[in-house]
Amino acid sequence: MIKKIQQDINEALAAPCFNNPDQDTAHGWADAVSAKLKNKDLNSQIAALSKLNPWINYFHIFKEWALVIGCIALNMKFKNPFLYVVSILFIASRQHAISLLAHEASHYRLFPNRKINDFMSNWFCNFALFYPIERFRHDHVLHHRHVGSEKDTLVLARNNIPKLPSPCSKAKLISVFLRDLLGMGSTIWVAIVFMHTKTFLDWEVTYPKKGWKRYYKKIEFWLFWALWLSVIGYFHLWQPFLLLWVLPLFSTFNFFQKMRFVADHYGLKGEHDYNISRNVYLKWYDFGWFFQPYNIAYHLDHHLWPSVPWYNVPQLHALLLTDPVYRDKAHISHGYFNFGPQGVFGEIMRGGVR
Length: 354
Prior knowledge:
The chain is mostly helical and 354 residues long. The chain is 62% helix and 2% strand.
């Protein structure tokens, strides 16, 4: 079982759609980490946790869209300015949640069948965010392969974002996120979406070889938007579509994205496999469902074992804590909005010094 799971991970890392960048670094983290852990019995237990339950993700995809549609319907009914401002933030939070379900799909962790996995991810997550799963997967695998290096796509994106130094002052930290909350830091996100969608449609990176997939995927993307825009036009829904989907996506959505990026990899020493990312024990004031859903706060554990789907990551973390090497070295923070020495914001302010 463990060999099959590792084979699936390695297949994803070496798949043609990634254009095979730097094959010498294509090995996943799990092999190296497994060799260092003292408790060798963990492998079989982690293999069991890597089994997928597709019905969980069917439910959560439906739930997220029900929340978005319900919020839009409330605004159409009441037309209240305060409700609209709150809805911008709420819908952006659900767009972020939808992107995290797409993140699961990039690891083939959404559904066991890979064709269904990619179809459901594109039609119910990625296409609506203008970020097709094939391109998302290409970039995200490079992040896993080269985490923290200059080849890491997250680092490359971060280099184009207005700098958030670490260490930094509390005022600087708050001002950076306040800009994004107000939609003032979204320019880079618009540029990234445009670049990725254009590259996807040109198919220069995602599928370098000519073939039927190149044309089929283009048609699929345009078919999705042709259908939705037809429905929007027929029912005269242009105003709610533009004001309650497009506007949040290209404004406050970036606030949630940047906060997660920062929490995942900023303010860390990066000395070894166990502190290149962090796990965060959420506090009550972190509002995990709103800001960091789908157990993304266990980001270190995800990097160590990306084969484990999001709903089993808490059990994975409990298992890993039984190993003395992991327990001694794993970087664990206590709260996102905690400015103390063990909080995420506090660690960023202090440059990783606790």
